[in-house]
What does this fold into?
Amino acid sequence: MIEYFDDIFSPYLQNDLIEMLTPKPPHGGYPLFFTDNLTGDFKNSNEYGFGSDFISEGHLINHFGNRLLTPLYSFLNSQNIIIKELIRGRLSLQLPRYGTKEPIPSSPHKDLDYPHYVVIYYVTDSDGDTIFYDDNENEIKRVSPKKGRVLFFDGSLLHGGSSCTKNIRCFLNYNFTIENEIQSRK
It folds into this structure.
C-alpha cells in the first residue's frame, strides 16, 4: 500500500511549518544537525543533509514536537485512522547538490524491523523523489515531493529518498502503529 494525498490541511498551516523549519536570520529556528547518512544505512555514506528527531521511543524530545505533529494528526483524522503507538518522528532537510544534473537515489531501507506504518509530509516543493522497491530492490513506484503532500505507506516496503538539485528538500517522517485495520482504498 502506497498512497499520497495533497493539501490535507490549509495553506496557512503549510506556510507556518515552512517558516518554523526554514527561518531566516536573526530568528532561531528548529535545531538541525549535520549527518552524512540520513537513512542510517552505512553502505552509502553519500546521503548527507541535516536532521533531527523530535519524537523518539514515543516521547517528544523538544518543545517543537507538538507543532510538528500537525501534518500527521491532520492526515490520520482525514482518513479515520486511530494511532496506537507513535514510535518516531524525524525532520530531514537536504540542500541541493550543485554540479549534479539528476537526483541521486539513497540506499533502499526500512525504517524499523517490525510492522508499522509511515507518513512522510513534504514541507517544500523539490525534486528528489521517494522511491519504492520490491524485495529484489527493483523500483516499483516514485512519489515526488510537493509542498503539502502526505505520503502514506506500509513500513515493510523498501524505500529511499533521492538527493535534490533544485530546491531544499525538507520533510517530516513519522513511524507508528495503528489501532484499526487499514482497508485497501485503491
About this structure: The chain has one domain: 2-22+49-178. Residues 2-22+49-178 form a domain with the Jelly Rolls fold (CATH 2.60.120.620). DSSP finds three helices and eleven strands in the chain. The helical segments are 11-21, 65-68, 70-78.
